[in-house]
Amino acid sequence: MLLLGAAIVAGIGSEALAAEPPGTKTENFDRDPNWDGHNNRAKNPKPMKVVQDFGYSATTHAGGKRGEIGGVVSPDDQAAYYAKVIPEHTLDDVLTASGKLNVVENERSILLGFFNAQTVNEWRTPNTIALRIVQHRGEGDFFNVFIEYGTSRWRAGGAGFLEDPGLDNLNENVVRFPSGKKVYSWSLKYDPNGNNGGGTITATIDDQTVVAKLDPGHKADGATFNRFGLLNAVMGGHIPGTLWIDDLTINGETSAFDSDPKWDQVRNRGVHVTSYARPRFNFGYSPTHHAGGKMAGEMGGLIFRGDERYPDRMAYYGDRLEKLTLEKPLKASGKMSFRHGVTDSSTQIGFFHSTDSMKTSTAQTSGFPENFLGIAIEGPSSDGFLFYPVYTVNAPDQPGGSGQRADPPPSYIYPDGEAHEWTLDYQPVAEDGKARITVTLDGKAVTLELAPKDKAIGAHFDRFGIITTHTDGNGQKVYYDDLTYTVRQ
Question: Which of 175, 227, 393, 399 has the fewest Cβ atoms surrounding its Cβ within 10 A?
Fold first, then answer.
């Protein structure tokens, strides 16, 4: 079946509808199309101050002689680190580190471990093997520690220090290490031969031990490491934590910090103000040129997950359509670029309804809004980011199917800024008589069948564009251009 992507003609302007298939429209964003927007340029939360103040210090918080590394580390959408340059290692090499640790206070994640200075663009961070140190609000003077790793393909995994390893990794089961003045001994080791050659990571905090097995296939993804040190979580949040490290041994080489080691440092000292604050949406028409269109101009930006419990925490940006339903075909195609992605983030493009897809509710039964048919970009973190078809119907208690049931498995997509071609094709009656959505990314197709009961419930749409999810979370930066889509059936 010929999809609409083949019908896009280079250089077509927004007004050139004659070359388009009947019932469709092409938008090249060579100027602002004045689409309908709701809360897509949010004013809240207000901009926040970000403080980074860590590195070498002639102090003794972590015990031992005078001299250590550490200080105030804040999550931010910009990476900040203080780290030793090491020879490049991979997941085929043994990696070891150990030392002393003092966590004064911490309200967000701080990473201590191996990483790659060229890929610290998001969290969970690709090319990492690290300890993630975090203290959740309301837990008092305690912190938690997790093993965390990320492959070169943004697939991640790990394990936490648990009170009872036989129970699930729930908040009430995570070991609470007292923070303040207490100094801990810690270690981190990666063994490429563990787990029958699949790789294991072992961490200790004093007498506590946890082992994380790399998920199947993750070692084959590969990863490269050229730094060891302190790295912030590259995400929103901005509430700082303070910790100190001393008597550090990395791959057999010891640093006592008796003097300034003059390690590699990026944004580790300074204060700035940022508008990257969840869920301060900032998307719509943009004069940029990321998605691969012929000319500058596209749509997209910073898109956080929404939250259906609060009207000001949902948003959309879309073109106005005649009323569309599931009774007739729907098609869309275009170009896109995924530039930044954070664990627990999701974005959507497709057909939706300007009011019924924005209803507030405390139900939280589905991450997707009612009356939606389109494409989602999201995890889980063990898979990195997937690009797959999604639909929901016109019933809050029957939200419909998710693309996790797509066949074959959804395409991987990486937040590396590369330009891609994509298509979306909904057929109410496919060759076998079933209703089906087919999505392609760079020519790879994945399909999703509608359950007969869902099609019977039906859905209706009056917009095409970007709409937020209904359960809150982190943000992505995504851009779209050269869009062709159904406007009437």
Answer: 175
φ/ψ of residue 341, rounded to 5 = -140, 140
| Preceding omega of 278 cis (within 30 degrees of 0) | no
Which residue type is seen at 286? S
Parallel, antiparallel or unpaired: strands 253-255 and 200-205: unpaired
Residues composing the chain? 489
Going by pLDDT thresholds of 50, 70 and 90, the confidence category of residue 237 is: confident
Q: In whole angstroms, what is the distance from residue 262 CA to residue 334 CA?
A: 48
**DSSP code of residue 397:** T
Report which DSSP code applies to 409.
Answer: P
Joined together, the tokens standing for residue 88 give: 């490049």
Nearest to 461 by CA among 325, 360, 366: 325
Residue 258: left if φ>0, alpha if ψ -120 to 50, beta else—which one?
alpha
How large is the average pLDDT for residues 432-436?
A: 91
SS3 per-residue string spanning 86-140 = EEEEECCCCEEEEEEEEEEEECCCEEEEEECCCCCCCCCCCCEEEEEEECCCCCC
Q: Are 296 and 463 in contact (CB under 8 A)?
A: no
* Predicted TM-score (pTM) of this structure: 0.91
Q: Please tell me the distance from the alpha carbon of residue 9 to that of residue 337, in angstroms, as a whole number.
A: 19
Establish whether the linkage from the previous residue to 415 is cis, with ω within 30° of 0: no
Burial class of residue 253 (count of CB atoms within 10 Å of its CB; 0-12, 13-18, 19+): exposed
Inter-residue contact 158 to 148 (CB < 8 Å): yes
* DSSP annotation of 162: B
- Is residue 435 within 8 Å of residue 326, measured between CB atoms? yes
Residue whose pair of structure tokens reads 């191996």 in the numeric block? 114
**Alpha carbons within 13 A on the beta-carbon side of 76:** 25
